[in-house]
TrEMBL record:
This is Putative restriction endonuclease domain-containing protein. InterPro entries: Nuclease_put_TT1808, Restrct_endonuc-II-like, Uma2. It comes from Coleofasciculus chthonoplastes PCC 7420. Pfam families: Uma2 (PF05685). Residues 2-162 form the Putative restriction endonuclease domain.
Length: 168
């Protein structure tokens, strides 16, 4: 199933804001247009995040990268952002666990339509931007609402609010 236009708009805006930070801070990172995450030992299907930030220095350790845009080592991934769709359970449950196991330091869940379950975004449901920071193998989650300034541990100079990524 393909994402909606507004889903793509939000993902593009997030990627653009991260890219500006990468350039402005001269980080040796990359945001590929499309990329799969598939650990070599994994039996599960590959994951295709909406936005993925890679450490260019680690790409030489990726066994498939020169042939196809597949990342096998979690160490290569600096940050993943998922824009929540109607299958919100994947973003809030399955991917939180899988990305933590891979050791991805930061994971953003961008629920601009407030689709997630009450246990994830509260009641009443509202647009929510969740920053998950990996601490001792599990994600510590911080939720942000419209008007809140988002804090990224990997990008401490990032000036971003959920309002900035909402579709027009």
């Amino acid at each position: 199933m393909e994402p909606t236009g507004s889903h793509e708009e939000v993902a593009w805006t997030i990627a653009g804001r991260i890219y500006a930070e990468i350039i402005g801070n001269q980080l040796n990172w990359l945001i590929p247009k499309s990329c799969l995450i598939k650990p070599l030992a994994a039996e599960a299907t590959a994951l295709r995040p909406d936005v993925i930030v890679l450490d260019k220095a680690e790409l030489s350790n990726e066994p498939l990268w020169q042939k196809e845009p597949i990342i096998c080592n979690g160490k290569t991934i600096k940050l993943v952002a998922e824009v929540v769709s109607t299958n919100w359970q994947d973003d809030y449950a399955r991917k939180v666990e899988e990305y933590a196991v891979l050791g991805i330091p930061e994971f953003w869940i961008v629920d601009f339509r407030g689709l997630g379950g009450w246990q994830f975004i509260g009641n009443p449901k509202q647009p929510t931007f969740t920053v998950c920071q990996l601490m001792r193998g599990a994600y510590q989650q911080q939720k942000y609402r419209l008007g809140d300034t988002i804090t990224s541990y990997l990008l401490p100079n990032l000036q971003l609010k959920l309002d900035d990524v909402m579709p027009n």
